[in-house]
Amino acid sequence: MSTQFLALPPWLSLTLTGVAAAAACALILGFLLKSGLAWQLATDVPNHRSLHTRPTPRVGGWGIVPVAAIGIWQLAPSLWLIALLMLFVAAISQIDDRRGLPARVRFAAHLFVVITTVSVYPAAVPIWALAVIAMLMVWLVNLYNFMDGADGLAGGMTLFGFAGYAAAAMLSANAAPSLALASLAVAGAAAGFLYFNFHPARIFLGDAGSISLGFLAGAFGYWGWRDDVWPIWFPALVFSPFICDASVTLLRRLLRGEKIWEAHREHYYQRMVRSGMGHAKTAAVWYVAMLSGIILAVSALGWPPIIQWVSVGVWVLVLAIIGIGVDARWRRFNSATLEKRGV
Fold first, then answer.
1. pLDDT tens digits, residue range 286-322?
2. Are 323 and 268 in contact (CB under 8 A)?
3. In the chain, how long is the greatest CA-to-CA distance?
4. Angle formed by the axes of helices 127-146 and 206-226, to 10°?
5. Contacts of 323 (CB under 8 A, 6+ apart)
6. Secondary structure, 3-state, the chain
7. Which tens digit of pLDDT belongs to each residue from 207-260?
């Protein structure tokens, strides 16, 4: 099928891929909801750390993962091992969704799929550089899960991020049409999931979905860099809102001596929701940030390397300023709350 798709005009093959993936994912998730199977597979019950108030199925991965796997297999056969590893980590994560697994077991699975990827498809760099890249990929796997806590957020990052991958893979001097099609299959599946995940969400992504997508974001980013489709900074810039939020939050918790693997409500997006913006407005702000960073990343591909790196630095500064603004809003919200309580 990939040969037939590649023979079509690029815009047509990409459009058909995205629409088919969105429809397939939406049909699967719609069936799970209407049949009642969604609640049996995995249900998120609210607790004191949650941003939602009612039990909600955590089955987004049941729609996204099979659609992404079939899309990769059919449209980018060279990425077959990445699809297989995604299915493996999705299966482990589904067990975690249903019954819970120790952190060490989950982390071992994340290490396995990442190390296998960089070992089977090594880049022409020193082994220490591959080790650093592998650890960054493991971090991306986990931070995707950390950022799956507000309606429409992780689904939006997936839609925009993988669409950015697809655009870059087509526009690059070393174009990779198969990688573009695989990326758009994932983006399309995310669009089908978002139909049910916009506020008020009827379905959550769940670990089976978020962990799998985090792995694909890292694996596709690594593959594109390895094949000289894009520079090493490109995947980081595409997913920079997620990376910056999760990394800063982790650092803060580490400095306070807290257990970083425990659930909490200290991410920037969580503070935005809790301080009165709500899920819909928070998602809208994040969508603007996501799209802005991705447009910058794709545009910068044709710029001189020094300008590319300057652009990355400027964008990180922009995100830092946004973060400072969110922190200031959070402090004002807390102060107003204490005043109302007479504290």
1. 999 999 999 999 999 999 999 999 999 999 999 999 9
2. yes
3. 69
4. 150
5. 244, 245, 248, 268
6. CHHHHHHCCHHHHHHHHHHHHHHHHHHHHHHHHHHCHHHHHCEECCCCCCCCCCCEECCHHHHHHHHHHHHHHHHCHHHHHHHHHHHHHHHHHHHHHHHCCCHHHHHHHHHHHHHHHHHHCCCCCCHHHHHHHHHHHHHHHHHHHHCCCCCCHHHHHHHHHHHHHHHHHHHCCCCCHHHHHHHHHHHHHHHHHHHHHCCCCCCCCHHHHHHHHHHHHHHHHHHHHHCCCCCCHHHHHHCHHHHHHHHHHHHHHHHCCCCCCCCCCCCHHHHHHHHHHHHHHHHHHHHHHHHHHHHHHHHHCCCCHHHHHHHHHHHHHHHHHHHHHHHHHHHHHHHHHHHHHCC
7. 999 999 999 999 999 999 999 999 999 999 999 999 999 899 888 888 887 776
**Both structure tokens of 33:** 């909801």
Q: Two tokens at 76?
A: 């980018």
**Residue position matching structure tokens 């919200």:** 333
Q: What are 266's two structure tokens?
A: 């200290």
